[in-house]
Design brief:
Elements (H helix, E strand, L loop, with lengths): L5 E4 L2 E2 L28 E2 L30 H4 L29 E2 L9 E2 L4 E5 L6 E4 L2 H9 L35 E2 L12 E6 L8 E6 L5 E2 L2 H10 L1 H5 L13 E2 L45 H8 L12 H4 L5
Antiparallel strand pairs: 1-6, 2-3, 4-5, 6-7, 8-12, 9-10, 10-11
The protein binds a DNA duplex through strand 4, helix 3 and helix 5.
Length: about 325
DNA sequence: GCCACCGGTGGC
DNA sequence: GCCACCGGTGGC
């Protein structure tokens, strides 16, 4: 019945117009209050880099505890790397995480509707002590992965950190708190370490997308693999790795879960398809003759047609646009 | 042309 | 709702 939370925080570099208040404020960005399309700021890894704005992070929209006063030491926190383990957290066997120093190069998406914002990236690895529940920074991604691999059988305690912090005990203040200055994500426990020479990459997506993150494995050859199917195929084509002992059990594409609710766009409700009969009539018909999918009824950032698309999935057209016939359904 | 990032599907 | 997979595409 114990829970394991590994966390990694994503410090992010805030955009100038996201910084409210004094420059001392630890966070220039609160997603909660952000207008939908001012999604300009984002995370850039800070840990272990010379980034000079380590304080700017993605805020967590909820689950904030405000326990202690160490909140504004984030500039320092953000320069460490850590992992947390939370035996008390809900959701058996989960691990929280926040951000990854290794992947901390500034990333930008390049999608039309996202105005080249910087994307979040992992800035710190943390694990919660199973005894005192304080979050402890883990110095490296590798150490984090090592801890995560056996977190269920080998819970993390402050003493576990003696390997890199000889004096640490449960009496010491937490390294990090969920103060809203970072994006927090709940990692999965017991994920195997990647095979030697391989790297497991976690890429956090931008807010409001359809998924929170993606996992990639990078083979020693540099080849990026993005699913078990691809790994299997790759290993078949490169038996030398198998000969070295690489096996499928060393791979997992499980992604963490964002602590912040609504970070990921909810998937529209999909009505069960009754046999082969879907009545496309009397749905919505705001799509014009050109098949223009820019909604007139929709709000910015709320592409209603997507839910429509779901309703019509059996009649999906090859292009992203609905045919005029499909759209001609508002029989009101 | 490559590839990082995102959308969307089907299955459960 | 979550997960796994993979196609599409803008930017480089």
């Amino acid at each position: 019945m114990e829970r394991n939370h590994l966390d990694f925080a994503s410090p992010e570099k805030a955009d100038h117009n996201d910084i409210h208040g004094s420059s001392v404020t630890s966070c220039g960005y609160s997603m909660k209050h952000e207008p939908k399309d001012s999604r300009v700021s984002a995370g850039s890894g800070v840990i272990g880099t010379s980034n000079q704005n380590p304080r700017d992070v993605i805020s967590s929209a909820e689950g904030e505890e405000h326990n202690t006063e160490d909140e504004d030491n984030n500039s320092e926190d953000a320069q460490k790397q850590l992992v947390l383990y939370d035996p008390a957290a809900v959701g058996a066997g989960e691990i929280e995480l926040v951000a990854d120093p290794v992947d901390s190069q500034p990333r930008r998406n390049s999608f039309p509707n996202y105005a080249s914002r910087i994307l979040p990236s992992v800035g710190a690895f943390t694990v919660q002590c199973a005894n005192c529940f304080k979050w402890r920074l883990i110095p490296t991604k590798e150490k984090y992965e090592e801890i995560r691999e056996h977190i269920l059988e080998q819970p993390f305690y402050c003493e576990t950190a003696h390997e890199w912090r000889a004096e640490l005990s449960c009496n010491d203040p937490p390294d990090l708190t969920q103060d809203g200055s970072r994006l927090w994500a709940i990692d999965k426990p017991n994920i195997a370490q990647p095979p030697p020479g391989w790297e497991r990459l976690l890429r956090i997506r931008g807010e409001g997308g359809t998924r929170f993150a993606d996992v990639y494995y990078v083979a020693p050859s540099g080849k990026r693999l993005r699913s078990m199917v691809e790994v299997e195929k790759y290993l078949q084509e490169h038996p030398e790795y198998v000969a070295q002992g690489v096996s499928m059990s060393q791979f997992s594409f499980q992604i963490p879960r964002p602590l912040q609710d609504n970070y990921v766009k909810k998937r529209p409700y999909r009505p069960a398809l009754a046999h082969d009969e879907i009545e496309p009539v009397n749905r919505i018909a705001w799509i014009d003759q050109d098949g223009d999918t820019d909604l007139r009824l929709g709000m910015p950032g709320v592409p209603l047609f997507e839910s429509l698309n779901q309703s019509f999935k059996k009649k999906r057209t090859p292009s992203k646009r609905m045919s005029n016939a499909d759209a001609a359904c508002k029989s009101s």
